Amino acid sequence: MELNVIGAKSLSVSDEVFGGEYKKALVHQVVTAYQAGGRAGTKAQLSRGEMSGTTKKFKKQKGGGARHGDYRAPIFVGGGVTFAAKPRSFEQKVNRKAYRVAIRSIIAELCRQDRLKVVSELSMEAPSTKGMIAKLAELEVKGRVLLVSEDSTEALYLSARNIPYIHVVDVLALNPVSLVGSDYVVMTVDAVKKVEEWLA
């Protein structure tokens, strides 16, 4: 299939990568797994056995009062937690092949909806927020925009840093959450070739 390149000739790309069907269930699974992998999982609570304080029986067994051991029990205010949360990993296993199929599916859907813009190059000579705003206006993109370059320069990153909802990544940092959450994705020709090579 052919992709329109803004300001240059069209680019011939693989139908398998840029024209496949949209697999909604797989995309959902991969996006959820990616977000889960980013969770810290550092929540920690103290169980009854980890609480500080005496274990002495605080009342006699008979003659009034509850028959109880100590104040560290979960039923008392300030006592331990019944099922105390401990640091854990939220990672979900996703096969490499399934991950690539999901990325292919997302990119193909972006192409169908005309939300993928391809440009010959994406660079800034010097950091300039005003210049970046003008460039985005030329491309006719708005909302949440993801700029994908083969190798993002510091000037490009600094130019986009102060504009809300504009993110710059290189091909190696491309992920399903960024793609799904963007209204438009702008890629350079070199980035498209690299993505095609990765997903073929």
Automatic annotation (TrEMBL):
Keyword terms, alphabetized: Ribonucleoprotein, Ribosomal protein, RNA-binding, rRNA-binding
Single GO term (MF): rRNA binding
Gene Ontology cellular component terms for the protein in this record: ribonucleoprotein complex; ribosome
Gene3D superfamilies, per database record: 3.40.1370.10
InterPro entries reported for this sequence: Ribosomal_uL4, Ribosomal_uL4-like, Ribosomal_uL4_dom_sf
Region (Disordered): 45-67
Keyword Cytoplasm in annotation: no
Tagged with keyword RNA-binding: yes
GO-annotated biological processes: translation
Residues that span the membrane, as ranges: none
Physiological role: One of the primary rRNA binding proteins, this protein initially binds near the 5'-end of the 23S rRNA. It is important during the early stages of 50S assembly. It makes multiple contacts with different domains of the 23S rRNA in the assembled 50S subunit and ribosome.
Subunit structure, as described in the record: Part of the 50S ribosomal subunit.
Family: Belongs to the universal ribosomal protein uL4 family.
Entry protein name: Large ribosomal subunit protein uL4
Gene: rplD
